[in-house]
Amino acid sequence: MATKISIIGAGSACFSLAMIKDLCLTPNLRGSQVCLMDISPERLDAAYGLCMRYAQEVGSTLDLVKTTDRERALEGADFVINTALVGGHQRLQDGFRLAKKHGYHYGSYHVMHDEGFWINYYQFRLFESLVQDIKRYCPEAWLLLVANPVLAGTTFLTRKYPWLKTVGL
User: Cis omega before residue 41 (within 30°)?
Assistant: First the structure.
């Protein structure tokens, strides 16, 4: 049986294309199904098109599929890669502008690197809803947390859900 890898938040074309490149070039994943999932059909279509073109050009045997349905993406998955950013990149940038306006700059106590404290509440809600869906649709899957806040999210999830197989990247 082929490995199923689901990428949640796959509408980021740059990130998804880089991920597909790595998966296409990994011999042990030949024949695997990679399910790209995003809530934005337009962004998903754009990312899927780029990924399909790359996979075809390198002669990959990956089975690339796309969906806006998270349940479908998770059903039977062996690996779930969460890259989703609630509200998207624009919400993150709006928060950085507002923080800067009030004197908080990159690297300050409140705004560290690319992790905006104003989105973490929504990210944690997403993480928890994803864990509940993993429990329902693919309880043996590994969750690879790529979406920020990675360290805080991984720590939180492993403490609250000790049964969950997860790693933060």
Answer: no
Q: How far is the C-alpha of 37 from the C-alpha of 82, rounded, in Å?
A: 10
CA distances from 127 to 45, 57, 165 (A): 24, 34, 13
Q: Residue 114 contacts by C-beta under 8 Å, 6 or more apart in sequence?
A: 92, 148
Residue 125, CA atoms < 13 Å, CB-side half-sphere: 7
Q: Where are the alpha helices (DSSP H) in 41-167?
A: 41-57, 70-74, 88-101, 117-137, 150-160
Q: Could you tell me if 73 and 4 are in contact, meaning their C-beta atoms sit under 8 angstroms apart?
A: no
Phi then psi dihedrals of residue 122, to 5 deg: -70, -35
What pLDDT shows up at residue 88? 66
Blockwise average pLDDT, block size 10, the chain, 169 residues? 94 89 94 97 96 96 97 98 83 73 62 61 94 98 93 94 96
Q: Are 36 and 42 in contact (CB under 8 A)?
A: no
Task: Say how far residue 51 (Cα) sits from the centre of its chain.
Answer: 15
Give residue 12's pLDDT.
86
The confidence score (pLDDT) of residue 89 equals 67
- Residue 80: both structure tokens together: 């779930």
pLDDT at 106: 59
Q: Whole-model pTM above 0.85?
A: yes
